[in-house]
Amino acid sequence: MGTMTSFLERGLMDEDFPIRVVQTEETFLFAPHWHEEVEIVYVAESGARIELNHHLCELKKGEILMIKPGEVHSFLPGTGKLLIIVFRMHFLTGTNPCGPDEQSLKSLVSHNTVIPAHQVQKANLALMMKAIAEEESGRQPGYKWSMKARLYDLIVRLIRLKPGQMEDDYPGGACSESKKFAFIEAVCEYLERHYDQPLKLDDIADHTNFNKFYLCKLFKEARGMTVMDYLNQYRIAQAKWELLGGSESILQIAVRNGFNNLNSFNRIFKKYNGCTPSEFRKRSGRTAQ
């Protein structure tokens, strides 16, 4: 995935009313944006592809994603019908933001959370969100009071979910060390299997479902080198064995190891070995071809 400039979404709701309901069509796209309100996204049909802080979140039908205030997010192609409820924190915390219930709410919305479909169904969360939406669309006398009351009920139900019933810090939160290791291992395995192909960063990002800029950052932190450096070093290591033991021409070896021309192969080989492929072959006692 590429990257786009995010923007602050203003005028998200009426100043006098702290709740907004959005019901999308069968396909929904929205550019990167952020806002100060909490956003609860229910996947009503198909699935959803949401980029959250440069991390792709793929949701299944029936799942819920809670997005904390200030998070940059966008809705990508492949996103189906959604029910979204957005609300301001201060509406629920009121004038006593330090009370125990208010602290429970702050803890709930301090990270991004995915609630699996079976827990959504078990806790009737989708039904509660739909009830808020029905009040908003019906606009019967007292509907705003009813929406507020039903939102309180929804938040209480969410607060009472046990930690094991939600997937905290996914996506967009900090990766645990085990998740980082698994991710880096998957990237390296992919590179080592496909090194002989003309790989680009976009290909690797698509395979790992990561934004390519976040992928590069995480890989550099873990391995101390860029993704392309790792790929080129692996290619050169394979090529060196062939230069030592094979009879093919240097051009054939270059192409078989993922280099599309001899100039780039010579340049990168010299970068890591201090000599050209032909010089390396001569030093090893073989004749350059």
Automatic annotation (TrEMBL):
Organism this protein belongs to: Paenibacillus cineris
Protein name: AraC family transcriptional regulator
The keyword tRNA-binding belongs to this UniProt entry's keyword annotation: no
Keywords linked to the UniProt accession: DNA-binding, Transcription, Transcription regulation
One Pfam family from the record: HTH_18
Signal peptide start-end: none
Keyword DNA-binding listed: yes
Domain HTH araC/xylS-type residues, every copy: 185-283
Matching PANTHER family: ARAC-FAMILY TRANSCRIPTIONAL REGULATOR (PTHR43280), HTH-TYPE TRANSCRIPTIONAL ACTIVATOR RHAS (PTHR43280:SF28)
Domain of life: Bacteria
